[in-house]
Write a structure and sequence with these properties.
alpha/beta
Length: 238
């Protein structure tokens, strides 16, 4: 376990030292989009949905977040459902139309492989309508790992800001001899760090602009429910 611990911390250290400027850039783009009347949209399919959820209604999290997390992106209905759907390129138009993505919005997409048709097409459609796209992905693909999009391109090709997850090939790249395969996927671990870092940077940008950052408190500490009530009413209508 010490080896895996060192593997994870090395991944996190590499991400911090090489991607901090990208996270700063992402926070700036999100702040600008919100101030111009756009939405801060976040999405991810399969296990990447956890990256999107890390932004959404978390204790200490930023409140003004619009998730794109339909049931078909999750794993609870069927273990293969999200995998199949994220490969169906034309399904991107369903998501694009249902969520009415427009030129004022900013779309944050998590996909470690960044190769599946629906994910790539959604980024492409968002850019074409004038929205900005931020990708959390691994742009360093193993030899022979081809895009599943008709253009042959990847998520990062249709993104304004690319945050490299700095994970190993296929994410689960910590070789375990007893299993004769890689284990210990790290994209979720570093993804949570990226999401929280962007949220903190975003709050700081609000403060620098003389605005009060809309940040949730934990509902499990005294006064949390009262603090959050106004935020839920203002941003989620509940």
């Amino acid at each position: 376990m010490e080896n895996y611990y060192q593997y994870v911390t090395a991944n996190l250290e590499k991400l911090y030292t090489t991607q901090i400027q990208k996270m700063e850039e992402a926070a700036t783009c999100i702040f600008d989009a919100i101030q111009n009347g756009g939405r801060f949209l976040v999405t991810g399919s399969g296990h990447s949905h956890m990256f999107a959820e890390e932004f959404y209604v978390r204790a200490g999290g930023f409140a003004q977040v619009s998730p794109i997390l339909p049931n078909e992106f999750f794993l609870h209905d069927h273990p293969l459902k999200s995998t199949v759907i994220e490969r169906v390129e034309v399904y991107a138009k369903v998501i694009f139309d249902l969520y009415k993505i427009n030129s004022k919005d900013i779309l944050v997409i998590a996909s470690n492989s960044g190769r599946n048709g629906m994910t790539v097409e959604l980024a492409k459609m968002a850019q074409e309508c004038g929205a900005k796209v931020i990708a959390f992905t691994n742009p360093n693909h193993p030899v022979g790992s081809k895009s599943r999009h008709s253009s042959g391109k990847y998520l990062y090709d249709f993104s304004d800001v690319v945050i490299d997850s700095c994970t190993g090939p296929g994410d689960a790249a910590f070789y375990v001899e007893e299993a004769n395969t890689g284990m210990g996927a790290t994209s979720t671990i570093v993804g949570a760090f990226v999401a929280q870092t962007i949220s903190i940077l975003l709050a700081k940008k609000y403060h620098q602009a003389g605005l009060k950052p809309p940040v949730f408190k934990s509902s499990n500490v005294d006064g949390g429910d009262e603090w959050n009530k106004e935020l839920f009413a203002k941003y989620y209508g509940v």
